[in-house]
Amino acid sequence: MYIKSIVASIAVAQTLVSAAAKPQDYWKSFTSSTDPNNITLPKLKQLTSNDPVAECVNYETPAQFKFVASEWPTMWETATSNGMNKSAEFTALYNSIPWSSMPNIPVRKATADGGLDFTGYDQSKDPDCWWSSSTCTKPKHPSINEDIYQCPEPDTWGLTYDDGPNCSHNAFYDYLEQQKLKASMFYIGSNVINWPYGAMRGIKDGHHLADHTWSHQLMTTLTNQEVLAELYYTQKAIKMATGVTPLHWRPAFGDVDDRVRWIATQLNLTTILWNLDTDDWAAGTSETVAAVQKHYDDFIQMGSNGTFKQSGNIVLSHEINNMTMDFAIKNLPQITKSYKNVMDVATCMNISYPYQEHTVKFPSFADYVAGNKGNTVGSNSTSSSSSSSSPSGNAKSSSGSASAANQSSSTSAGFKTVPVNGLAFAAVLTFAAALL
Ligand SMILES: *[C@@H]1O[C@H](CO)[C@@H](O)[C@H](O)[C@H]1NC(C)=O
Ligand SMILES: *[C@@H]1O[C@H](CO)[C@@H](O)[C@H](O)[C@H]1NC(C)=O
Ligand SMILES: *[C@@H]1O[C@H](CO)[C@@H](O)[C@H](O)[C@H]1NC(C)=O
Ligand SMILES: *[C@@H]1O[C@H](CO)[C@@H](O)[C@H](O)[C@H]1NC(C)=O
Ligand SMILES: *[C@@H]1O[C@H](CO)[C@@H](O)[C@H](O)[C@H]1NC(C)=O
Ligand SMILES: *[C@@H]1O[C@H](CO)[C@@H](O)[C@H](O)[C@H]1NC(C)=O
Ligand SMILES: *[C@@H]1O[C@H](CO)[C@@H](O)[C@H](O)[C@H]1NC(C)=O
Ligand SMILES: *[C@@H]1O[C@H](CO)[C@@H](O)[C@H](O)[C@H]1NC(C)=O
Ligand SMILES: CC(=O)N[C@H]1CO[C@H](CO)[C@@H](O)[C@@H]1O
Ligand SMILES: [Zn+2]
Question: How far, in Å, CA of 360 to CA of 369, rounded?
Fold first, then answer.
């Protein structure tokens, strides 16, 4: 078991849960020393490298952050782990939620091979708007935010990348920056904790950051408490690293139903799905590389043959690894030729403020198309940096509980691999002892 502190990386997680808090106010208790409008990334040699081995070294050590392992779930485990669900912080949040109003929908079961068990569910009626069953996106129960699954404007490609941030993403982010392309980036909480510089680069570059859960599991198979924790701790991790709390999230594998949506809605989160799937992550495993390239070719063709004449798309693709990011770089020149507009989801939806804090303002669709592509400082630039880093203390006081067994491997990284539906996610954990 890897139980250890990631160095210094993550911001001071203050937990000032006030009594009688409303669930949608939870984010006000997060503090972050990051100003999203003034991100400074240190001059590390890996920042423009293409080599993940080199890029990931020392990537997780913003000096202004302090990571306290006892305040976070265990990396890549269900977010109730490490006693989080018994913490005063989480208990207060849990108790603030009006659970009796939640639609009465059971926790789903997984099959032995890690799929979903639909036994006993009326898939033709799909009463719970279970996306995995029928790609339903319009909730059938009341008081639930409706999903976004396509950019409404014609000839528009909604650019989205899941499963970041990854320390090896810099060549890819450099490319997007050079091309002045902004995407919606769905970040996994465990990755944000591992590689906060990656998330900081995301906000610095003006991408639309959103929540992709803590441990990337089938959400409908998790209990209410687990669903809440998966979303909450990812919100918190993104806030710690970047200074903003997202208002959007995407379920892993698209697995969402009205129970899960209702819980997300309590945190003011709206679900973003997709209507085209590249399957890029599967290239070379369950699909051939050529088959994935064919998906891209088809989607590119749809941009010029009238398929998106009335409305646009949102395309699922990934930041996971060199292969998926190479697909992106290879195909974007054709995508931008074939489609009139290529942009992040906040912009294509005219969502000026995709974060709880109004510190970053996105352009409207019309402004973006007119060439005003940059984000601006929002109406509330004072609320972001609520805590200042202490002059010398924070960076050094990492809670060094690296497991004794591996304290000695002071310069190496430990890899933890969790298979998810045939897909392996490797989380690089660097030991506290290594970097200070
Ligand atoms: C931006 O951050 C730098 C270093 O963290 C600081 O010196 C500077 O005053 C900040 N600028 C603004 C406008 O806040
Ligand atoms: C906390 O979560 C763990 C793991 O999900 C679970 O086994 C335990 O029953 C939960 N405890 C409480 C008090 O809810
Ligand atoms: C959050 O949710 C509350 C209650 O549903 C709503 O009044 C408020 O407008 C929402 N805020 C945002 C930023 O979506
Ligand atoms: C447009 O291209 C796609 C992908 O090749 C194809 O499936 C679809 O039938 C085409 N539509 C029209 C109207 O030609
Ligand atoms: C991060 O990127 C590296 C290099 O491409 C890859 O091997 C690794 O699996 C990725 N990790 C995660 C958690 O996505
Ligand atoms: C993938 O790796 C190759 C070889 O190291 C490199 O040239 C390329 O730029 C990488 N692609 C991305 C998107 O990082
Ligand atoms: C975005 O705003 C434009 C007007 O500027 C409007 O025509 C369009 O319908 C809006 N799109 C959405 C999704 O609200
Ligand atoms: C600015 O932030 C403060 C503190 O978070 C909040 O009370 C206020 O409503 C915000 N104002 C705007 C215009 O968003
Ligand atoms: C007990 C344990 O996890 N040992 C590992 C420590 O790290 C080295 C190098 O990464 C591994 O080889 C050991 O297995
Ligand atoms: Zn994912």
Answer: 19
